[in-house]
Specification:
Number of strands: 6
Shape: globular
Largest sheet: 6 strands, parallel
Radius of gyration: 17 Å
Number of helices: 8
Oligomer: single chain
Distance between the termini: 54 Å
Order of helices and strands: EHHEHEHEHEEHHH
C-alpha cells in the first residue's frame, strides 16, 4: 500500500491513567520531516483535554474528536492505520480487540491486560513511555510496506479472541466441570 499519511488512532477518556500525554510526547519526538508523514487522532473527552493541547509541538498534527457515539466509532477505525493504547494501567483495554477487528496493528502498553495477546506479527507491546512509543512510530513510518500483511494477521487474531469465541470457551469449560 502507498500511504501519503500514516494515521494513528487512540481512544479513551482524557484522564491521566489513559496515557494520551505519553502518546503526544512520543509524537513530539518526531522531527519535522517525520511528522509530515503522520497524523494522530484521539477519541474521547475528559478533564485532561486542556493539558494535552498545551503539550503538542506545533509541527505535530493531532486531532481531538471528543466523545463519539458507539454507532459512529467505526468510521474512525476504518480511517486509521495503526492504533495506540498507552495506558498507565488498564485491566483489559477492549479498544485493542476493536482495533484488531478492524485490521489495525496496535501499539499497546504492557500495563494493559490485552497486551498478553499481542505479538510482533500484529503490533508491539511497549512500556508506557514516550521513547518506547516513538521507536514503534518509526517502525511503522519506515515499514509501511508491511502494513497489509500485518493488518491481515490482526483480523486473524481478532477472530481467535473475539467475545463470541471466548464465551464459547468459557461455556465449554463450565459444562465440562459443572455437574447438573
Amino acid at each position: 500500500m502507498n500511504f501519503t499519511t500514516i494515521k494513528f488512532l487512540s481512544s479513551g477518556s482524557l484522564i491521566k491513567r489513559k496515557g494520551h500525554d505519553i502518546v503526544i510526547e512520543a509524537f513530539n519526538l518526531l522531527n519535522k520531516e517525520q511528522s509530515k508523514k503522520v497524523e494522530l487522532t484521539i477519541l474521547g473527552d475528559g478533564p485532561e483535554l486542556r493539558n494535552l493541547k498545551k503539550i503538542i509541538n506545533p509541527h505535530i498534527n493531532v486531532n481531538f474528536i471528543g466523545f463519539v457515539q458507539p454507532n459512529e466509532i467505526s468510521k474512525y477505525y476504518l480511517d486509521a492505520h495503526v492504533f495506540i493504547l498507552a495506558s498507565r494501567y488498564d485491566g483489559w483495554g477492549v479498544v485493542i480487540n476493536e482495533a484488531l477487528a478492524f485490521g489495525l496493528p496496535v501499539i499497546v502498553s504492557n500495563s494493559c491486560g490485552a497486551s498478553e495477546y499481542i505479538k510482533e506479527s500484529v503490533g508491539f507491546v511497549v512500556n508506557p513511555n514516550p521513547l518506547d512509543i516513538y521507536n514503534k512510530l518509526l517502525y511503522f513510518i519506515n515499514n509501511i510496506d508491511k502494513y497489509t500483511t500485518i493488518s491481515n494477521k490482526c483480523v486473524e487474531l481478532s477472530n481467535q479472541i473475539n467475545s463470541d469465541v471466548i464465551a464459547n470457551k468459557i461455556n465449554k469449560i463450565l459444562k465440562t466441570y459443572l455437574i447438573d
